[in-house]
Amino acid sequence: MVKQRKYVVKKQFQGVPKRDDFEIVETELPPIKNGEILIKTEWISVDPYQRAYNSRYPVPYDQFGYQVSLVLESKDPRYPEGSRVVCHQGWCDHSVVNTSEGGATLGLSAVYKLPDLKGLSNSLGIGAIGMPGATAYFGFLELCQPKAGETVVVTGAAGAVGSIVGQIAKIKGCTVIGFAGSDDKVEWLEKELGFDKAFNYKTVDVLKDLKEAAPKGVDCYFDNVGGEISSQIISQMNLFGRVAVCGSISAYNDMLNPPKASIIQPSIVMKQLKIEGFIVSRWLSRWPEAFADLTKWAKSGQLKTREHVTEGFDKIYDAFVGMLAGENTGKAVVKV
Ligand SMILES: NC(=O)c1ccc[n+]([C@@H]2O[C@H](COP(=O)([O-])OP(=O)(O)OC[C@H]3O[C@@H](n4cnc5c(N)ncnc54)[C@H](OP(=O)(O)O)[C@@H]3O)[C@@H](O)[C@H]2O)c1
Fold it and tell me: Which residue, judged by its Cα, is nearest atom 44 of ligand 1?
């Protein structure tokens, strides 16, 4: 019998999630049946939607989330023993997955083979070459339709999605301006990732500095954070500018009482902007396209894939609240 340890959310989050909102529960897993696999988790993802979607589910619920896992036993020939999978089984160390359903919540994928990462770290399967990478790739390319020479702004720029968006924008020949939450992150964006300009949104005058950095205005805005900074950026957009609304993390810890932001409708009308929200599962069947390009760029050195690694199953909560507080540069992952 294989034992499973898993995080169960037993209280609805109020503000920043608390350690005792979770309970680690141990159970025995049943023997696998036809169409099932037994997997051992190797990498677990902590992501902002795990905070944002909390109020959708009655407690208690098993904490959902992506993981990269090793197949220990298989009764599905598509996933042989010793191979690796990506699935949405949540924060658990072992699990039995029904491969036709496997953790398929939130309209996300069930289970799929870890893409061929050409020798890159398997952890990228939940990061730059996983859901966050697909988010950056499709959200930016499909909705912003960037053209070489255009000016792109990205918020949450040093995070999992934002750091990939900015680098794709550079690959496409754009001028890229990023906003992130510390001077170290700003330095990394400018010196390592090749952003043309980056700012610490906590210390600068956003409007003044953005006007100086983008004297010809902003053509594309990839919005990870929402709130007042997004209103300020949108006020600087050019005629027919495009905004991809990916997330609003500035409000996730207080969704019932979200911050107020300046009116954006005059800019939308006068600049005839196109503003579109999206969920990455919209392009689920096309994720392999993104993974192929992202792997190619990562192998060639055009795309840098930094990770913020926390070690240990017992530390997932710390990694989660650390990510929400901005401790991560690049993708926050937990090595189990
Ligand atoms: N639409 C979709 O399908 C989809 C898919 C994936 C992710 N997302 C969204 O994309 C965004 C980024 O996700 P990610 O996975 O890449 O996370 P991430 O950026 O790697 O990590 C979260 C980051 O948010 C920043 N942050 C925290 N509080 C903030 C605040 N009040 N204002 C501004 N920034 C704040 C922190 O960086 P700083 O130090 O810079 O503050 C933190 O590092 C989130 O909004 C997420 O919900 C959407």
Answer: 247
